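job 3f2a | input accepted
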Amino acid sequence: TDGDMDAAIEFLRKNGEAKAVKKAGRIAAEGIVMADVKEDKTAAIVEVNSETDFVSKNEQFLGLMDTLQEAILANKPATTEEALNVQTAEGTINDLIINATATIGEKISFRRVAVVEKADDEIFGSYMHMGGSISAVVVVKGTQDATVAKNLAMQVASMAPKYVSQAEVPGEEVEHERELQLQMMKADPNMAKKPEKVLEGILKGKVDKHFKDQCLLDQEYFLEPKTKVSQFLKDNKAEVVTFVRFQTGEGIEKREENFAEEVAAQMAK
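job 3f2a | predicted structure (269 res):
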């Protein structure tokens, strides 16, 4: 650009965008979900994906995660779209993702974010598993015991509940599961011999069991398998207000690639 600094910056920006566009169709299902808590009542979980596990462990990627998390906690975006427009010292978060894609050589994507806030009488519990493969944040009230909150975050990370209690399950989801179980029962010849009242009881039991596995309060507490989480909370005079759990790449169809091919592909970049 003949020594024109502004033109050089523009050239590099456009070049980075072009590289990012070329990589847009690739599958990025590895990466990190990072949970962080700020003392002023805010916590956040951020998921950023890469194509390979190698990249998600390098210093540039980890530095990017720290920058993004700091910006998210400071600005508290409500959606992923808002987060991409958050300004940092090096441009927007979207700019940083584009630049990372261009310089690292893999598709890097900012997939999702959740910002959680708490009241004065509540505490956070957070947990990151294996450097960020799974992260969870829990808001607890009724206690100031950080260990209780941390253990609940570990429970959420390990047992993957969808809801705090069955009262939170949407009616349409209950009805869908009821219909699904009913169809399976009709396909079972042994069920045809049972009285209608008995069948209703069996159906209710099957639906209840399905949602008990998905509701935090009904799960077995991971440190005491014979104890329900609801009992653990009662024993500690605590209550779960809400939680968020992210697992890296969940819901993304991963490419099939063996380890040797992955190393060869990385070395060729």
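job 3f2a | The mean pLDDT is 89.
job 3f2a | closed
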